[in-house]
## 1
Amino acid sequence: MNLPLTGGCVCGAVRYQCDARPIAMLKCHCRDCQRVSGGPHVCAVLLPSSAFRFTQGMPKYYCTSSEGGGLHRRGFCSECGSRLTGGEDPDQPRDFIGVTAGSLDEAGWFAPEMELWTCDALSWDPPRADVAAFDKNPPDPQE
């Protein structure tokens, strides 16, 4: 993995850059992620918000209710529809932003360290046995 990490949508209208290494890499099997991706899970990379910025254009956002409370905000390109970000709550800023692994310019280094919402995993896409798996969200390390 080479820094900075860069990525964007398929049409090039929205681009981003991160100057720091990922905090975590994961696969989320929740029903919302299945619906917004059209697939069995979403591969995501959590990046430090302080090192992340959009370098061209801005995504459009759509929010859904979050099981953990509040909202789950996802960003996508309003031109081509590419899903770019997630894991954000507009009412409770976090120190990370999630980006879809497929939106990275170089995604070959992606290696999930955990799988979330395995309770919603589809029978034909079971969680991997070699990474940590959580029925829903992992426990908060600060609690």
## 2
Amino acid sequence: MPKVYLLTGSNQGPGIEMLNTAAQHIQVYIGPIITRSSLYKTAPWGNTHQQDFLNQVLVVETALAPLEILKQILVIETGMGRVRQFKWAPRTIDIDMLFYDNLVVDEVDLQVPHPLLHQRRFTLIPLVEIAPYFTHPTLQLSMVELLDKCEDDGIVEKL
């Protein structure tokens, strides 16, 4: 079965509980989690005038296609109280699809690999923890190499 790499994040409400609840929903609606990174406290990115985030990367086996996964992600986020106010706003839960095996998807509503993941330490550090030599299908660099080249200096602390 294909493996999808998901980044979960929260900076509103009880963060650990939000990530755990998201993981439970992901297992029900997307597929079994086969690997999960540690939890990380991370500086906000994009809109830096907000609380720190808790983040975690999950690797999930799935029978769903990428656009079906996106639909389920939106259902989970909405069900957990996410309200989309503006780009990079504070949120109860955020679930980003980072990779879907080595597939490249370029649709209006979905781009996989996630187009900004190589610019974000809060994404790369948990990826390096669980899949250091996974190769980005378009950049042709491993997660270790991407982290080494990343210019983001945001704080990422393992809990």
## 3
Amino acid sequence: MAKKKKSWLNQHLNDGWVREAVKQGYRSRAAFKLEQLDKQDKLFKRGQLVVDLGAVPGGWSQYVARKLQGAGTVIAIDILPMADISGVEFVKGDFNDIEIQNSFADLLNQTKADIVISDMAPNISGVRDKDEAEFSDLFHSILVFIRNNLRPGGNLVVKGFEGVAAAELRHKCKRLFQTVRVRKPEASRDKSREHYLVAKGHLAQYGKQYDEID
């Protein structure tokens, strides 16, 4: 176990994206994944209201705050504590919790988000069926969140993993958005099964599109 941990640490420290994250002052290499998605799909612009679910350690929120340059709102939500980031409002708690939803609504002042982003992933056990079921549950929770908090026409960027459940999850997104694209940014490790769904044009807050996730 110690050898495996040491091997991972050496790989991590020798990762060019990790070194670049340190150089640019990002909290994680994941910031470059979002930057590459943004360049490809033109996700962020000044004046937007952006919500980052499962934001810790904060690399994605950092990138968006820098991109908006104070002309917009970034709200980060996580059950873990997060050190302050300039230009980011932080809500500590589970985004599924009703009290957190109310705090979030107060921050939004009855408006809806322009884009919801999430780089969350469940804790990986190594048992494929169990991991896919947990990921499916997490994805379901995100869809419930956007039903209540993403404006019609808004966008979603969410992490996915290839597997049996992946096609079903993409199908759900296609019922809720005008376009859904699968992306594998350069900064995502080659060996990782992760990909990202970029969904644009939220079709409805409520209605039959959401029947299958209730």
